[in-house]
């Protein structure tokens, strides 16, 4: 098959092995999303595996961001938006009215398409979350959390001598790593990323991709991407959406080499989207 994405078999086998034994972190069942009259997602059943990267791909408007936002209830902030069905994380219904949404968003962090550091210092960008969630007992602990988060985001060496500078003074790629450090700082279990590299140049993109690969040892990652090459490089499982429907999900190499559905095949061979 003439897929636009080439995978070598060693990579494919390693990817399959990497997720074979992983437990399921999030289960979505029969998820429907409406924006007013607009039916944006239809009966989506999807499992997200722990400590793996799941890529969401598909043509513009197919519902990737909508699905991602369901996972930390960011859709709650859109007045016309209605979500039905069940989404459970560690067997707990995240739409349970008893659930504390602020806590949920600490457990399920998010990184957006455009780097969006707060107009505050580099230090404060990372310290903000731990402070509001009371994760540090004193200044020294807070400084340690900030340093560890910046290290895990691969940014510490570049900023350690300028922690007081504004976050917005960094380059785009550095800003995105700062946003990743900010997400990591509250020790989330899941990190959602909506096209995190689309505003970045190839070098900054490569750094973020490398980082994602390291982060999956400790975090469950769900990434939306328009780049099939990126999905193939960073993810172990890929879900293909089309017109609000989850067409198929599987091991990334299978999706790109032997998709089961004609629509997936058409998309990965560049026939539409
Ligand atoms: N806030 C909103 N209000 C109304 N309709 C919306 C809203 N957000 C998304 N939609 C609609 O829901 C559908 C899915 O949108 P969504 O943003 O999830 O797509 P996407 O797959 O992320 O697309 P893209 O690749 O362009 O980011 C689209 O038809 C879109 O117009
Ligand atoms: Mg989107």
Automatic annotation (TrEMBL):
Pfam families assigned to the protein according to its UniProt record, in alphabetical order: ABC_tran
Signal sequence segment: none
Keyword ATP-binding applies: yes
Origin: domain of life: Bacteria
GO MF: ATP binding
The keyword ATP-binding is annotated on this UniProt entry: yes
Keyword list, A-Z: ATP-binding, Nucleotide-binding, Phosphate transport, Transport
Domain ABC transporter: 26-268
UniProt-listed InterPro entries: AAA+_ATPase, ABC_transporter-like_ATP-bd, ABC_transporter-like_CS, P-loop_NTPase, PstB-like
Family per similarity comment: Belongs to the ABC transporter superfamily.
PANTHER family: ABC TRANSPORTER I FAMILY MEMBER 17
Protein name: Phosphate ABC transporter ATP-binding protein PstB
Taxonomy of the source species: Bacteria, Pseudomonadati, Pseudomonadota, Alphaproteobacteria, Hyphomicrobiales
């Amino acid at each position: 098959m003439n897929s636009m994405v080439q995978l070598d078999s060693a990579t494919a086998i390693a990817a399959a092995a990497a997720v074979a034994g992983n437990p399921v972190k999030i289960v979505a069942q029969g998820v429907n999303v409406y924006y007013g009259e607009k039916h944006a997602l239809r009966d989506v059943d999807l499992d997200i595996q722990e400590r793996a990267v799941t890529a969401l791909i598909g043509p513009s408007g197919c519902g990737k961001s909508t699905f991602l936002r369901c996972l930390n209830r960011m859709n709650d902030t859109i007045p016309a938006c209605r979500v039905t069905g069940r989404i459970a994380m560690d067997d707990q219904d995240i739409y349970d009215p008893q659930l504390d949404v602020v806590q949920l968003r600490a457990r399920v962090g998010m990184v957006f398409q455009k780097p969006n550091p707060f107009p505050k210092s580099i230090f404060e960008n990372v310290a903000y979350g731990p402070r509001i969630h009371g994760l540090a007992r004193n200044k020294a602990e807070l400084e340690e959390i900030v340093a560890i988060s910046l290290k895990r985001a691969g940014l510490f060496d570049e900023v350690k001598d300028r922690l007081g500078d504004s976050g917005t003074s960094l380059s785009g790629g550095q800003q995105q790593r700062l946003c990743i450090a900010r997400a990591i700082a509250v020790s989330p279990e899941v990190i959602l990323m909506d096209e995190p590299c689309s505003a970045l140049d190839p070098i900054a993109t490569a750094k973020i991709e490398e980082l994602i690969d390291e982060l999956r040892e400790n975090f469950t990652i769900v990434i939306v991407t328009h780049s099939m090459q990126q999905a193939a490089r960073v993810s172990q499982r890929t879900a293909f959406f089309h017109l609000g429907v989850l067409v198929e999900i599987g091991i990334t190499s299978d999706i790109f080499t032997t998709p089961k559905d004609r629509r997936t095949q058409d998309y990965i061979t560049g026939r539409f989207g």
